[in-house]
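# step 3/5: fold
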Amino acid sequence: MAVDFASAVSAYKSASRMGGAEGAGAITNPMGEKSEGPKFAEMVQGAVQETIDAGRKGEDMTKLAIEGKADLRDVVMAVNNAETTLQTVIAVRDKVVNAYESILRMPI
């Protein structure tokens, strides 16, 4: 059963609404105390923004190279960084989708 990323995010949002507003963002440590931590949606948004920024930097460096204003080595590094960042985000997305599929297969 293949689940796309949008469905996984939608299911996460639905589950977080069912949990109630009081537990949103709260993390329970082994001592049973709740503490605020980063929210999953914020972490995903930050990762996506980093990916977009890395891609834009690679594009900007490529434009500068075309204009003769950037060193080829800098262009290669920026484009390689953008590619690596995108591959990391894709790998994380695949792991999240696999975890979601595993949860769906769990007996109720």
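# step 4/5: annotate
DSSP finds three helices and two strands in the chain.
# step 5/5: archive (pending)
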